[in-house]
Amino acid sequence: MIPLIYVLHNGNLYGLEQMALATLDGLSDEFKPHLFAPEGDVIKEAKKMGFETQSFSSKTDLTMKLRLLFSAHKELGFIATDLSHSYAVILLNTFYRRRVKHLHIVCGDENSNYARASRLNKFDVTFIALSEEVKEKLIAFDTRQDRIRVIENFMSEKRKEIVPCRLPFDKNGVKNVVIISRLEPRKKIDLLLDALDFKPQLSSVDFTIYGTGSELESLKKRARGRHQNVHFAGFDENISQKLADADLYIHLCPLQSSGLMILEAMAAQVPVLVSDSGGIGSMISHNINGFNFKANDFQHLAIRLDELSTAPFNLLNAIAKGGKHLLNIRFSPENSIEKYRRSIWGQKVQAVDLSRGKLIL
User: Fold this and answer.
1) In this structure, what DSSP letter does residue 266 have?
2) Rg of the Cα trace of the chain?
3) Regarding beta strands 75-80 and 2-7, do their DSSP bridges make them parallel or antiparallel, or are they unpaired?
4) How many CB atoms lie within 10 A of CB 44?
5) What is the Cβ-side half-sphere exposure of residue 70, based on CA atoms within 13 angstroms?
6) End-to-end distance of the chain based on CA atoms, in angstroms?
7) How confident is the model at residue 359 (pLDDT cuts 50, 70, 90)?
8) Given 17, 64, 91, 278, which residue has the most CB atoms within 10 angstroms?
9) Could you tell me where the beta strands, DSSP code E, fall in the chain?
10) How far is it between the farthest Cα atoms of the chain?
């Protein structure tokens, strides 16, 4: 089988890393999955799934380990999440001259990531944008428009089957709210504390924040004594159950292009409250499949949380149902995996699918 190499710049098991595993799994009947990443939880999980794995400690180490696959195969699929990964493959193929289908996923939300992507314009690289907003930004930074494909995140059917689900609401109001996020400035966790300062009556709602990062200690210090209803729980291996026990999931970042935890919440039938900007803002229709608030506006966040603290239980159940419907239709694995398949095979996809009794027009 042709190897499909997916390279990650992080060894953790957050959204991007889980999507890598789901993508490799979805394509494993056509390719032999290989995951390259720094040592960490994602390598351990990939081994459990039966994938070939390689950990690397530097750009040079990665290049040397990729070299072994290039020497052994005439055709390869390759998915990069960092510019250095793409450069490594381009450099190797200068010598080996293999048939490589090269996908480059644009990660992160800083403008510098979009600007750097355009450096690959002169090479045979397909750019994967995780939302239409990312595509627009790539175009604005002069990335070749004809090479951009939009493939949104998804949740595999295997994952849906094991996600714990929240019981239907039988009482009004949300009382137990969770945030699952890296604690970094761009994630805007401080916006929650600003909102609680603005509306002290929200002290009746419990907020639990899962995650670690550079802002952990400063956020804990600020919340200590002033907001006894805010709890910092760090990393929790049973995070899926913690999410299913909640009444509401909040996503505060105004810039993020996509977010797997939003999909996890929908699968768990937990209503979501998100910023109305970025790729995630475009996912949610307020009062239909979730709730939103004005980006970077702590006063509007406070108002929205106050409303939700007394929201009718039938509304909360309807929103949870709307989220689950959105997950199953728009973010189905069939849609996204087929787009990856097309991006890799190109015109070959018709022959591949005909062998399965499927015709892709």
Assistant:
1) H
2) 21
3) parallel
4) 12
5) 21
6) 25
7) very low
8) 17
9) 2-7, 31-37, 52-55, 75-80, 99-105, 125-129, 148-150, 176-180, 206-210, 230-234, 248-251, 272-275, 291-293
10) 66
3-state secondary structure of 274: strand
What strands, in cross-sheet order, belong to the sheet with 52-55?
A: 52-55, 31-37, 2-7, 75-80, 99-105, 125-129, 148-150
- 197 is written with which tokens? 């300062």
**One-letter amino acid identity for 177?**
V
**β-pair partners for 177:** 207, 248
Q: How far apart are CA 255 and CA 280, in angstroms?
A: 8
For residue 110, what pLDDT band results from cuts at 50, 70 and 90?
A: low
How would DSSP label each residue in 157-209?
HHHHHHS--PPPP-SSS--EEEEE---SGGG-THHHHHHHHH-GGGGGSEEEE
Q: Are 281 and 153 in contact (CB under 8 A)?
A: no
Residue type for 346, please? G
Tokens of 274: 């998100």
Would you say 118 and 141 are in contact if contact means Cβ atoms under 8 Å apart? yes
* Contact criterion met (CB below 8 Å) for 298 and 198: yes
Residue type, 64: M
Which of 21-25, 27-31, 253-257, 267-271 is predicted with the least confidence, judged by mean pLDDT?
A: 253-257
Cα–Cα–Cα angle for 179, 182, 184, nearest 5°? 115
Residue 46, both tokens: 């990939």
The alpha carbon of residue 231 and the mean position of all alpha carbons in its chain are separated, in whole angstroms, by 24
Query: Tokens at residue 10, please?
Result: 């992080």
pLDDT in tens, 159-171: 889 999 999 999 9
How far apart CA 148 and CA 138 sit, in angstroms, is 8
Q: How far apart are CA 351 and CA 60, in angstroms?
A: 38
The C-alpha atoms of residue 154 and residue 335 are separated, in whole angstroms, by: 9
